[in-house]
Amino acid sequence: NTLFLIEQISKLMMFLISIVIALYNESKSLEKLVDEIFRSLNNYRQYELILVNDGSIDDTLEVVQKIKKK
How far is Cα 31 from Cα 63, in angstroms, rounded to an integer? Predict the structure, then answer.
C-alpha cells in the first residue's frame, strides 16, 4: 500500500502547471484556445490541460475528443 501511494504521489507531482477550463458550448472557439495555450506553454516541459465539459449541448465534447487525439 505504501509503495502504491508513493507511485500515485509521484504521478501527481509530475506536472508543475495545471490549467483547468470549464467548457460550455465552446465548440467553435475551443481549438483556437487550446492552440494558444500550447503555444504559450511551449517553454514549459511539464504541464497538463484539463478540459471539463460542463453540459454543453453543441459539439464541444467531440472537439475535446478530437484535441485529445492530437
Answer: 7
DSSP notation for 11-55: HHTT-SEEEEEEESS-TTTHHHHHHHHHHHTTT-SSEEEEEEE-S
Residues across the chain: 70
pLDDT digits (tens, 9 = 90+) for 24-35: 999 999 999 999
Contact 47, 16 (CB under 8 A): yes
Mean pLDDT of the chain: 87
- Residues with Cβ within 8 Å of 20's Cβ and at least 6 positions away in sequence, in order, are 50, 52
From residue 7, give the alpha-carbon distance in Å to each of 11, 13, 15, 47.
6, 10, 14, 18
Write down the pTM of the prediction. 0.70
Any idea what DSSP says for residue 58?
Answer: S
